[in-house]
Write a structure and sequence with these properties.
Layout (H helix, E strand, L loop, with lengths): L2 E6 L5 E7 L5 E3 L10 E5 L9 E4 L4 E4 L25 H16 L5 E11 L6 H11 L4 E7 L3 E7 L2 E6 L2 E12 L16 H18 L6 E11 L2 E11 L6 H8 L7 E2 L1 H11 L10 E5 L4 E5 L3 E5 L2 E10 L5 H19 L2
Amino acid sequence: MSAYAIYRLPHEDHATLIKQSEGDPIELQSLAELNGKQGFVVAPFEIKADQPVVLIQGEPEQVSLDDKVSLDNKNVFFDNKNIRNKNKGADYYRVDFANYHSQLEADKFRKIVLARCADEKMPGGVTPMDLFYRACQRYPRLFIALVDTPQSGCWLTATPEILLDGHGNDWRTIALAGTMKLEGEQLNGEGETLTWSTKNIQEQRIVATYITECLEQFTGDFKEEGPRTVRAANLVHLRSDFTFKLNQNTRVGDVLQVLHPTPAVCGLPKRETFSFIVKNEHTPRRYYSGFMGPLGQEETHLYVSLRCMNIEGGTCHLYAGGGLLKDSVELQEWQETEAKMETMKKLLYV
């Protein structure tokens, strides 16, 4: 078996397994090439020759969450030649924050997302599939996926953010931005008692406006609802929902080409912030803040790859990021990334 993906949609009581037993997954160099194709998509933040869009093809198989699937994770020990810089944690983050923030103060960007990576040891005797099942149990409202391909290596994600979801002519996407951590008695609710800061409200509005402009290129028949507070693990975010009609679902790749990466993981202006991130961020993102999920004629469920880890041998590379605005404070932004990484850390230390 050269590649597989196993995923569980939010609130579902089963998982779906897609195995590619013959040949390697398809490699694509643009999202537009996904037009008319089917399979499980694994897309990076930045598409390039050694970091392609990967399409796993195989017959979907429904599997129980009560009986663990056993698979040979051939690529977990994949030796990635493009290995990231040794993580120096706060030192690199401090340098990157100052660099990014200076661009905001100079009014070059309206918003830019700064990401980082932290390494944790894989507990002895624990497999990636064990982590997948732990995530399904702990996070029923998130999209959970474990993928393993020769091109990408092995990735686990537990993400709340829909990039594109639909069937037939009916589609939806969301604007998700702003983050607050639930603590104490707040953990018993959905965050309904929290008051959002101006910074978080502005950040979410930037994403929603961008998505509106993207959808206007494909349809005039769309509706926005929100924003509202939604919970994801021990965090809450501001979310607006967009529903729209797409008469030619063979153009899904074109829509993705315009949407990805959204300002929720990149910034605005999109082209300028994207270029700045890939040139200046200390930690190459690879498949973090890309997207993954099943793409098909009947149904499509694509989610942004947030709250994720890349598993290489005995090391788990945990990723997190946060949106910076002109009034952002370094310590607060660092603490937000720490809170986001807790989603994955809790799977390692149970």
